[in-house]
Write a structure and sequence with these properties.
heterodimer, A: 266 residues, alpha/beta, Rossmann fold, 6-stranded mixed β-sheet, 4-stranded antiparallel β-sheet, B: 263 residues, 0% strand, binds adenosine-5'-triphosphate, binds magnesium ion
């Protein structure tokens, strides 16, 4: 079966990844041997206490940082530097303030070969539409709200069609309502246009709502403590949060994460 | 609450009205300074200052050649300073060894008054326009390099990361991200550079210039022609203000994307 075959070759293999930062006050062991396999079209959410190395891991997968030892394979190929097969959405939006919404979304497309300008524009508009910003095509980032900026960032990441989408607390800076809205939109998009997602969050509810598996990381030095299957079928929406199973999972993961928070306090 | 109300009234008065008010207050202040016995020598009556234009431009035929000579030195000196300063700033930000070697030099020379190194310049470049241009070029180069360098190293790290993950190589990163992100600083550098070029005029023209605003101010002061001197000083100030206005106009067009605080 295709599914089984797919399971044989993970989309992402994180193999004993260690990361040590050399700082002025000595070394920081940010990751101490992380191991994880992520399969095609999975939605992985990573939770864990602040400073446990979540962003570090994401940056290593993205190719923005180098692992001190160990390696990450994407589609069986070792990650060395960034690549357009891996899109990233940052918490701070990271839109180019001198470009309009459309030009921002076209940034990556313009660097792609074998596309005509018309195709690039068409693709950009398609994804701007997907995030519901067709009225703001020619606006500058400063004219947008935080939620709208993050929508542009998501459209920009999607436009270059990466097979793996890495998101570092993308909704962390947004208010609760906008957050809920964007979660629902992201779920819908992911169901329409399947991509493997690696999503970092502080919010356990958000993690369960989105993820097919939740990864709990332990306090520094970061390791992967537990991986929990979220056995609630898709499509999900905000009402999924009312399910008894949701509450059950939430309590379980919360306790798990809470132990790690306490670990940090010590 | 009281404050917002006040701000409202202040905001309702148009910009040009404020400018008129500012000018009017300056005239009034000048009037008192010219009547006050201790300051009257430095501040001749405004009517005499206006007459000085006639004396200098029409009777002596010096004014326009002076303006032309100075603008030429300022223009060429500034342009050279800019042409050297911007690439050096980018090189310093891009290659750390370049930075570690050049930055101390810049910090060292920057705090020396131009008047102090003028004799050295004259020794190398001779008296005349060349020396003036070199002095202005040095001063603007330093200011522009420091300002643009600050801009480049302040480019938001996440923008660079975002560009990289979208497939940008070093060239694209530089042309499409670092350079546009630095434009506000480049414009500020131009403004500061022009200002420095003008304030260096007297030093530059003490290299034995035969004409020029700075040279003339010094010459007039030595023969106590205060009204004429004051007229020249005002001209330098006005030139600076005009340059500033022109740049503000370009700044608005080029950096309208920036988030600005309403002041
Ligand atoms: N560039 C760096 N230089 C030195 N130390 C760093 C660097 N980046 C991260 N660290 C350290 O590595 C550890 C892990 O950082 P990381 O940003 O990965 O944590 P995180 O789990 O993403 O935290 P948060 O939830 O607060 O975003 C922290 O202790 C941090 O201080
Ligand atoms: Mg983080």
């Amino acid at each position: 079966m295709a599914g089984e075959e797919r399971n044989l070759i993970p989309k992402v293999q994180i193999k004993d990844v260690k990361k040590i930062y050399e700082g002025r006050n000595g070394q920081t062991i940010a990751l101490n041997g992380a191991n994880l396999d992520i399969y095609d079209n999975e939605f992985i959410c990573v939770v864990g206490p602040s400073g446990c190395g979540k962003s570090t891991l994401l940056n290593i997968i993205a190719g923005l940082h180098e692992a001190t030892s160990g390696e990450v394979l994407v589609d069986g190929v070792k990650v060395e530097g960034t690549g357009v097969d891996r899109g990233v959405v940052f918490q701070q939006y990271a839109l180019f303030p001198w470009l309009t919404v459309k030009k921002n979304v076209m940034f990556g497309l313009n660097l792609k070969k074998g596309m005509t300008d018309a195709e690039r524009e068409e693709t950009a508009l398609k994804y701007i539409k997907m995030v519901g910003l067709e009225k703001f095509v020619n606006s500058y980032p400063k004219e947008l709200s935080g939620g709208m900026k993050q929508r542009v960032a998501i459209a920009r990441a999607y436009a270059v069609n990466p097979s793996l989408l890495l998101m570092d607390e993308p909704f962390g800076a947004l208010d609760a309502q906008t957050r809920t809205q964007l979660q629902t939109e992201l779920l819908k998009t992911w169901e329409e246009e399947k991509k493997t997602c690696f999503f970092i969050t502080h919010d356990v509810e958000e993690a369960i709502l989105l993820a097919s598996r939740v990864v709990v990381m332990s306090a520094r030095p970061g390791r992967i403590k537990e991986v929990i299957d979220i056995d609630i079928p898709y499509p999900r929406n905000q009402e999924t949060k009312m399910l008894p199973r949701f509450t059950e999972l939430k309590n379980y993961i919360w306790q798990n994460v809470y132990k790690e928070y306490l670990e940090v306090q010590k | 609450m009281n404050k917002t109300k006040k701000v409202d009234i202040i905001g309702k008065i148009p910009k040009w009205a404020w400018l008129c008010l500012s000018l009017l207050s300056a005239v009034v202040l000048w009037f008192f300074l010219s009547k006050n016995p201790t300051t009257s020598l430095s501040f001749p009556p405004l009517s005499e200052v206006f007459k000085a234009y006639h004396t200098m431009a029409v009777e002596r035929g010096k004014f326009w050649p002076d303006v032309w000579a100075s603008m030429r030195s300022v223009g060429i000196g500034f342009l050279l300073g800019f042409v050297f300063g911007v690439p050096v700033a980018f090189l310093m930000a891009w290659y750390r060894p370049v930075r570690f070697i050049i930055e101390p030099w810049i910090q060292f020379v920057r705090n020396i008054p131009p008047l102090a190194y003028v004799p050295l310049v004259v020794l190398a470049a001779g008296v005349g326009a060349k020396a003036q241009i070199v002095v202005i070029c040095i001063a603007t180069f330093l200011t522009i390099t420091v300002t643009v360098f600050q801009g480049v190293i302040n480019v938001d790290e996440t923008l660079i990361k975002a560009a990289r993950v979208l497939g940008a190589n070093d060239t694209v990163l530089f042309v499409k991200v670092i350079f546009p992100a630095t434009t506000p600083f480049i414009i500020t550098a131009v403004r500061l550079g022009i200002s420095v070029a003008l304030t260096t005029l007297i030093a530059a023209e003490s290299t034995g210039a035969v004409a020029g605003l700075g040279m003339r101010i010094k010459a007039l002061s030595q023969v106590f022609e205060n009204a004429e001197m004051m007229f020249y000083i005002i001209v330098v100030g006005v030139i600076g203000m005009l340059a500033e206005k022109v740049l503000k106009f370009f700044e608005r067009r080029l950096t309208s994307w920036q988030e600005k605080r309403e002041i």
